[in-house]
Amino acid sequence: MTTQTLPRTTSGWVGLARTGPDAAQGPAVVAAVYRLWLLAFALKMLGSTWDMSWHFKWLRDDAAPPHLLNTAGTVIVVALVLFQAYHNVGVDRAAKRLMVGGTATFLIAIPIDILNHRINGLDITAWSASHALLYIGTAFMLLGVARGYWISTPPSRTRTVVSAFIWGFFLENVLFPSQHQEYGVLSLESWRAGTPTAEPILLKFAADQIGRPVDDIAVQGFALPVDAWVYPAWITGAALLTLVAARAFVGARFTATLIAGTYLAYRLVVWGLLAGTGFPKSIPPLLLLAGAVAIDLVFLAFAGSRARKSMIPAQVGPERVTAAKAPTGLALALVAAVFGAAVATAATAGATWVQAFFIGAPPIDYPAFAYGFAVLALGWATITTVTHRQRT
Questions:
Q1: Full-prediction pTM beyond 0.85?
Q2: Distance between CA atoms of residues 233 and 212, nearest Å
Q3: Among 267, 385, 386, which Cα is nearest to 330's?
């Protein structure tokens, strides 16, 4: 692949956008397109991170700087989807449908969310239905990008690293709503300590919506509007499942650990930037790293057990290999999935207790980890079944 095949003039780029790349330009255009996807998601991630902190300080504003940053990323996304869908650049049918469907869902959710705010005033929680449409649209969009990049790029270390970054953006999207509790617990503590981080106009607006004065009940309803079971169930059943999917998709050792570690490093850097400029602080989910390490270790242990134990005789015909391999290998893989879900859940619950003891954590209903385990085990087993069928 060489960038020398790309246009050097504005008119050349306009012509490329109208007609699509020729055979010689194809690889370079695919690479450029997916680099722009990374830029778009980086802008959207920075905007959403800033947005969460912003909403714990000031009243909502459609034209707030975090929204504009996110919008810049969205504009790039729309342009890329139109280009790739029209010219079939770096996509197959499944990837194109995921990209188009996800982007359409996201765009439809924007006016719905704005209308929701106009009708209902301040939308206090990140867990609302209109916000969920934004997350779901972004998730499908990212799945399309992950698939499109993987099938259109030759196997290489670069493909592995970029794919891991795409799944890192997916993890950030999954974890965005749970940041409400990570900010909310400190926001409530600040209020109770007499040093609220939210502006008085925001607290009064939130209190007026439920017909109360600005008191502890009103502030708690603004800062922590969901039950204590939501956070542990979501971290286990959604975030850990994302890491399982990333490890199965990318296939590299310690994929889950590197993605979780990179995400946490990003959160810590942004924490310093936001806190240093007067924005409210949050509690990063450091507990996630324990579950990620457990996931990678289970994948490694399972791969090692398959290498050590020859479950199929070496001297057999192809028909017997297929018949013997499918049920035995799948059964062992499903056992590993359920075992892995149990280990990862236990590791995350233990890390949650340690984090809560040393630096704090959102309100945690520890039995709710069982809900997350059930979802994680089912999801891990489903991913295992699908990938096993593809291999056989």
A1: yes
A2: 31
A3: 385
